[in-house]
Specification:
The complex is a heterodimer of chains A (825) and B (246). Chain A is of the alpha/beta class. Chain A contains 31 helices and 13 strands. Chain B has 246 residues and is of the alpha/beta class. Chain B has one domain: Vaccinia Virus protein VP39 (Rossmann fold), CATH 3.40.50. Chain B has a seven-stranded mixed sheet with strand order 5-4-3-6-7-8-9. Chain B has a two-stranded antiparallel sheet with strand order 1-2. Classes of the chains: A alpha/beta (825), B alpha/beta (246).
């Protein structure tokens, strides 16, 4: 069957001549899962060697390989289809080879994102990285697209295994990352891809079967015998870990890898770490011996030696976060983001009555409590201390208890926070709703203490202050009486009290700051003359900001501020997004004077990614259209039909991604763990969409009643469910929050199932219609959909930053409506 | 093949031209350095930065015009040596943007005869600048290869008076001090108490804060005559965070 020569006629007759047969569903499933695993894995790998936001940028552009494959197959289908098995197997094997080679070579391109605005050579290197990562996605997508085109009458089945494979891949890679090092997972993904090719060949006649055996052997052997030196990770020399390792006497003493990050513990034999961020200049003591703990090569946190004695921990009383212990006596403390344990030691130093410590990554707790127990003194097992593995926000929400002090630790690294690298990370820790939740869990007179880095001009500290003001107002408390803000030269601490600050509180706060040369920025009754004394700023920006944010002119102040300091909410959880377009020209003009560091990178990089993806997509969509319409002198393919096909597949590509991304975010709050959320939500979406796709193949093209076309029914169901969920979920989540993990997961799956089932239908229905009327357009339609998905993923974040996730969902519903109207007739 | 030969010839010619004309290359660097200094002086005049000073000290400007920055950058960065930008020098370290070097040096207010300590030698450029302003400059670098290269470079360029050391800067350099000025270019989570102790009354310490290539703000620590400490945080640029109120 694969030996038929390419016919001279239009593709339609080629397909007809080839007959039907069965598509290689197992091979598609394997390849699709390998490609998805590779995509997730690249984010992990580039987060380790570079920084997360550039990982996102590179991968988004590389994913346009899907769109390009649609274009390629559309143009070359007459040559490709008759050799279907060979093309599929070749592409799958090439995916395997280039998945490893692409990453290995991309690592060797000396791309340094930190120099991108200084060095005109850097953008070219970035393009080289795109090119290298593009190839594997292009290969995998070509194999899958050629399957859709070759078996154009069976899109329901192919699409369902395609997305089931993607679901399996995303889940599989998360599991594999718990068990294996990221580079070993890379080998596994490559091997899976090659095996998919072998499976496709094995269906054919005798000679390909022999080839299939060879390919199976290659899959089983080649990726695993490549020298480790080739695939070894080469982190940027500008990452904190790399810099630390240049010091004599440093060595890595432990490494733990999981989907949450690569943890590295470093010992320094000759030069102690002495990590004490923002230590008072009046302090004379040196921190005790420490080990350094890095996550993905950044964000040093100290694992401090503790032998049960208090005195060596005295330095922990010389930082701004010690303030609440001077206002409370022997409090019951909740530490959110306990990490390597500095805040727990601080609580122990201050003789806290009890400490609950919450940490997301169980491996961190294991390192502190088990692996380095002799060194750390196992503080999580100290009398009165309880360690909890979990996400901070979810932990608090699920508990009925109250604490005297809730301490939110300084989780992110200063370098990354000052460069705006977190701008794109959603954080549900610092939203108005989160602060309300914390306040509701404080004993009367209890304190919420949040410590942040001091960036100038102030950004996150003022945003935090504004967020606290909003949270207090929503809870019906007078903000001006309940807030206090102090700052050192490197850190600032905000206190929010469940009750009004008393004169005794204020006296203790003043004394705490005076003894440590910290500045007061706000407390009830503050006099401007008291501020900006020890660590002098050109203007008392923190004090002025706090006063403005408490006053009637708050809105005006936030509007006029050159950074975005409007409070973050659960619907727009971008606490770290400060960028404003109107400040950009000024900052670029200040480049020569060292003004560039004030530029918050994350957002402009995202927008640059979006612009690139849109430009490349347009090219990929329009280019083959010219060729196809010129070639198809077929009356069945009028331009109007092609336009409908494009509009339909663009709309559903955007809409599917919008809904999926927005609901991953929404369910993150319920599942209270980023990994569970991604795994559960993504897999439920893909699994039930796959079932929906399979089911749609059984639907008659036209039924009865107003929703007589299947696509109209599916779209109506999607719209109704989306809008219903937007209204009901916040309320429902509050009810479900206290339930144990398995039940919350079960409820999540049950909520997603009907929505995803309906969302699985529009794509195969549209493709079947296209195949019936103009089969030459099938690969093109697939490519259009691929481009739309890539652009949509980026656009969803941009939209969420500006308008919130609810708006993203509403837009998706409108797009589905548009798709129903544009359905190719 | 013919193309390759042609390209080879051109390359050979270029190499010969470069090797055969050291004088003109040197001349070129001198001109570039003058350009850089003019640019920095102009920028500083326009900025009137946040210390309230109208411009940079004339001595600092003069010294920037004297130290051959191109001898402190790696060979592949020669072309950018006098551009007003930070440059990579290997081992994850950078040589600061010249404008920031000027600003930090100006903040230190070094007078002839002052004792100056630098933590984080890096390429040695900042140490050379300081050595042009005073006789006693001591500098400590924690990364051994960087320290060796910088020591060698400083000696070759006639800055043999600069005392260099490999190791931990936390305890300063008591034998060399006490100091009138200290500059800490190495990233530190806090200001080491021993450094404050080694600062003379009336002395000044400058610490740039930020990630590589992104020195965001400068911290100036001043020790009063009575030993009291005041710190200032200085943005290198004039950037008012509120619009409509300049």
């Amino acid at each position: 069957m694969a030996s038929a020569p390419p016919g001279p006629g239009p593709a339609r007759s080629t397909v007809a001549a080839l007959g039907n047969g069965a598509p290689p569903l197992v091979a598609v499933l394997l390849l699709s899962s390998a490609a998805m695993a590779y995509e997730v894995l690249l984010t992990r790998l580039f987060s380790i060697i570079l920084w997360h936001h550039f990982a996102y940028m590179m991968i988004s552009v590389a994913l346009l390989g899907y769109g390009a494959a649609g274009t390629f197959v559309a143009v070359a289908q007459r040559a490709l289809l008759p050799r279907f098995e060979a093309v599929f197997a070749g592409c799958a094997a090439l995916f395997g080879a280039t998945a490893i080679a692409g990453f290995v070579l991309a690592q060797r391109v000396a791309f340094n994102p930190l120099e991108i605005l200084w060095d005109p050579g850097q953008p070219l290197r970035l393009v080289a990285v795109y090119g290298l990562l593009f190839v594997p996605f292009f290969c995998a997508a070509t194999a899958i697209c050629v399957t859709f085109t070759r078996f154009a009458s069976l899109p329901h089945r192919i699409y369902s295994v395609d997305i089931l494979g993607a679901g399996a891949g995303s889940l599989g890679v998360l599991g594999a990352l718990f068990l294996l090092a990221p580079t070993d997972v890379l080998r596994l993904a490559a091997a899976t891809g090659i095996a998919a090719g072998a499976v496709a060949l094995a269906r054919g006649s005798v000679p390909p079967r022999r080839l299939a055996a060879v390919l199976f052997a290659a899959a089983a052997v080649v990726p695993f015998v490549l020298p480790a030196a080739w695939t070894g990770l080469r982190p940027s020399e500008y990452k904190e870990l790399s810099q630390t390792l240049t010091i004599d006497g440093t060595r890595i003493v432990a490494e733990r890898s999981s989907p949450l990050g690569l943890l590295t513990v470093v010992e320094s034999a000759s030069v102690p770490f002495r990590h004490a961020p923002g230590l008072s200049l009046n302090a004379t003591m040196e921190p005790p011996p420490q080990l350094a703990l890095f996550t993905d090569g950044e964000g040093l946190s100290a694992l401090t030696r503790y032998d049960g004695r208090r005195e060596p921990l005295a330095y922990l009383d010389q930082v701004t976060s010690a303030l609440p212990y001077h206002l409370l006596r022997k409090p019951r403390v909740l530490v959110l983001g306990a990490g390597a344990g500095a805040d727990v030691l601080q609580a122990l130093y201050h003789e806290a009555r009890a400490v609950d410590a919450v940490e997301l990554d169980p491996q961190v707790i294991d390192l502190v409590q088990q692996r380095f127990a002799d060194f750390s003194g196992a503080p999580y097992g100290a009398p009165g201390v309880r360690a909890h593995v979990g996400e901070a926000r979810g932990f608090v929400a699920a508990r009925g208890e109250r604490w005297d002090l809730i301490q939110v630790a300084l989780l992110d690294a200063f370098g990354a926070s000052s460069a705006g690298l977190y701008a794109l990370s959603e954080s549900y820790l610092y939203t108005v709703e989160a602060l309300q939740e914390y306040l509701a869990h404080l004993e009367p007179g209890g304190l919420l203490a949040i410590t942040r880095w001091v960036n100038l001009p102030p950004r996150d500290v003022l945003k935090l202050f504004a967020t606290a003001v909003a949270a207090l107002e929503r809870s019906g408390a007078p903000p001006a009486q309940r807030l206090a803000l102090i700052r050192g030269w490197k850190t600032a601490t905000l206190l929010v009290k469940n009750g009004a600050f008393t004169p005794a509180d204020i006296a203790a706060l003043r004394e705490f700051c005076r003894a440590r040369s910290f500045d007061v920025a706000y407390f009830p009754g503050i006099d401007a003359a008291e501020t900006n004394r020890y660590n002098v700023l050109d203007r008392p920006d923190f004090h002025d900001g706090a006063i403005a944010l408490l006053g009637a002119g708050r809105g005006d102040f936030i509007d006029r501020y050159k950074f975005d300091i409007a409070p973050a909410t659960d619907d727009r959880p971008y606490f770290f997004h400060f960028f404003r377009w109107r400040a950009l020209p000024e900052l670029l003009a200040l480049k020569a004077r060292g003004g560039l560091p004030l530029l918050e990178w994350g957002y402009p990089v995202l927008v640059a990614t979006l612009v690139q993806a849109v430009a490349a997509s347009l090219l990929l969509i329009l280019l083959p259209l010219g060729v196809l319409t010129r070639r198809a002198q077929d009356p069945a393919t009028p331009a109007a039909f092609a336009l409908r096909v494009a509009a339909y597949f663009l709309a559903i590509g955007f809409a599917f991604m919008f809904v999926e991304i927005a609901f991953i975010q929404k369910f993150l709050l319920l599942l209270a763990h980023p990994l569970y959320a991604v795994a559960v939500v993504l897999c439920s979406f893909l699994l039930f969409a796959g079932l929906g796709s399979w089911f749609s193949g059984r639907l008659p093209p036209k039924g009865e009643g107003p929703l007589r076309r299947p696509v109209t029914g599916a779209v109506a169901a999607i719209g109704a469910l989306c809008l219903l969920y937007l209204v009901v979920l916040p309320w429902l989540f509050r009810l479900l929050m206290p339930l144990p993990d398995p039940l919350r997961i079960l409820f999540s799956i049950a909520l997603i199932a009907p929505l995803a089932f309906a969302m699985g239908m529009p794509f195969p229905l549209g493709l079947a219609r296209t195949a019936a009327r103009a089969p030459a357009l099938v690969p093109w339609a697939w490519g259009v959909n691929g481009c739309a998905s890539v652009v949509a993923a980026i656009l969803a974040t941009v939209l969420a930053i500006h308008a919130g996730f609810a708006a993203v969902v509403v837009l998706a519903v409108l797009l589905y409506g548009l798709a129903a109207a544009a359905f190719p007739r | 093949m013919k193309h390759l030969l042609g390209i080879g010839r051109i390359l050979a010619f270029l190499l010969l031209a470069m090797a055969g004309a050291p004088g003109s290359a040197q001349h070129d660097f001198d001109a570039q350095r003058r350009g850089m200094v003019d640019e920095i002086a102009a920028l500083a005049r326009e900025t009137a930065f946040e210390t309230g000073k109208p411009a940079l000290d004339a001595r600092v400007i003069a010294v920037l015009g004297k130290v051959p920055r191109h001898r402190f950058v790696p060979a592949d960065q020669l072309g950018a040596a006098y551009r007003n930008r930070p440059l990579p020098i290997g081992h994850g370290q950078t040589i600061s943007q010249p404008y920031i070097v000027a600003l930090m040096t100006d903040l230190l207010q070094v007078r002839p005869g002052d004792a100056v300590l630098e933590i984080g030698t890096g390429s040695g450029y900042q140490a050379a600048i300081l050595a042009e302003l005073t006789q006693t400059v001591c500098t400590i670098e924690i990364v051994p290869p960087l320290a060796r290269e910088a020591e060698e470079r400083l000696r070759t360029l006639g800055y043999a008076g600069v005392r260099t050391r490999v190791g931990d800067g936390y305890y300063g350099w008591a034998d060399c001090g006490p100091f009138d000025a200290i500059i800490v270019t190495a990233a530190a989570s806090h200001v080491p108490p021993p450094l404050i102790q080694q600062l003379k009354p009336g002395g000044r310490m400058v610490i740039p804060v930020g990630a590589p290539f992104l020195a965001q703000q400068l911290m100036l620590v001043e020790k009063n005559r009575d030993g009291g400490i005041v710190t200032r945080q200085i943005l290198p640029v004039r950037f008012v965070p509120l619009t409509g109120k300049h």
